[in-house]
Amino acid sequence: MTPTASPLNSPAGQRFPVVVVGAGPAGLTVGSILRAAGVDCLVLETESRSFIEHRPRAGVIEEWAVRGLERRGLARNLLERAQVHGECEFRFGGERYRFRYAELSGRHHFVHPQQFLVSDLVREYADVRGGEIRFGVRDVRLHGLDSGRPSVSYVCAESGERRLVECDFVAGCDGARGVTRAAMPPQRVRVARYDYGVGWLALLAEAPPSSDCVVFGMHPHGFAGHMQRSPEVTRYYLQCPPGDDPGNWPHERVWAELRERLGAAGAPPLTEGRLIERRVLDMHNYVVEPMAFGRLFLAGDAAHLTAPIAAKGMNLALHDAFLLGDGLVARLTKGDDSALAGYSATCLARVWDYQEFSQWLSEVYHGTAAGDPYRAGTALARLRRLFDSPVAAAAFAEQYLGTRTAG
User: Fold this and answer.
1) Does the reported pTM lie above 0.90?
2) Using an 8 Å Cβ cutoff, are 402 and 62 in contact?
3) Fewer CB atoms near the end CB (10 Å): N or C, the chain?
4) At what angle do helices 63-71 and 313-334 cross, to 10 degrees?
5) How far apart are CA 269 and CA 231, in angstroms?
6) Is the dihedral of CA 375, 377, 382, 383 positive or negative?
């Protein structure tokens, strides 16, 4: 959709300095930053509170992002409950190779499922900091974005009436399919896209993890991944054709392929369990440039999508949210526009860095199954270099942890 003028004959609506569209990690973080500074805002979310608090998504948070949440008073439960990981394992050629990135960098990953973080953030925003949030809204529309008086209208879940909210700024945090990205005028933005040409079958298993760390399996049949989510639930991935039907992957086939692709000398057997999620993700990326138009600022998947190849999506969303929240506070409390003026360029520097790493890592993961001896050979060369060259290992750890552009 495109932004429209304010609805004619609409009753006088409420006014908030900021309307945040979307109650994911980015939107709730922006809202919490604003509320901590005494700035009123309204968060609009199409789903219910229960839905967003139980929707399984990403789970790996980089240490710089955790510290950013901690500085803003948003990480207490995360620090108490999250697992801390300092190494991962690559399996290829029938062997296991441990990569101890914490020893190289002094940094860690935190494993904390996104739904737990969202629960923490919505509680902090709404219940602790008294932020306004409306769930189950429908047909959100943006108006007057390039004017000094933007507004947002929506259909109320309870009454079915359209309501209008006037504001100074709109934070578009409603994801890849949301209305805010669609409201960016095509003639004013560039959308860069990249399709990896592969799919991943995303699985959640009611089964304890079969390793004490993340495992990446590179196999002629395709990539496989093992990621702990909790003591009772494990995330698995299997490379598959893009657009594949999850129904093509019954329980027996899934576990047979996982055993094959993650098999290696000395590896413990997989602990199998009931599959509680099966969906196919087509691996693709996009970047919207710039990430702002008029009074609208995009954050998270509304502005850029990074396939889960490198586990960067939630981290980029939090980076955007820190910058946007702080920039809005500076503008609304001090009249300082400098952070908002530089918001898009600053965000995009990290976005493109992560996009490049995702593309590089995709060749490592998928090259051995490409059916191309050249790609298979170069993928194996990259893998061996990680364990033969301290310089290559340190560079990989820096990108894997996001420390080069951390701040």
Assistant:
1) yes
2) yes
3) C
4) 30
5) 17
6) positive
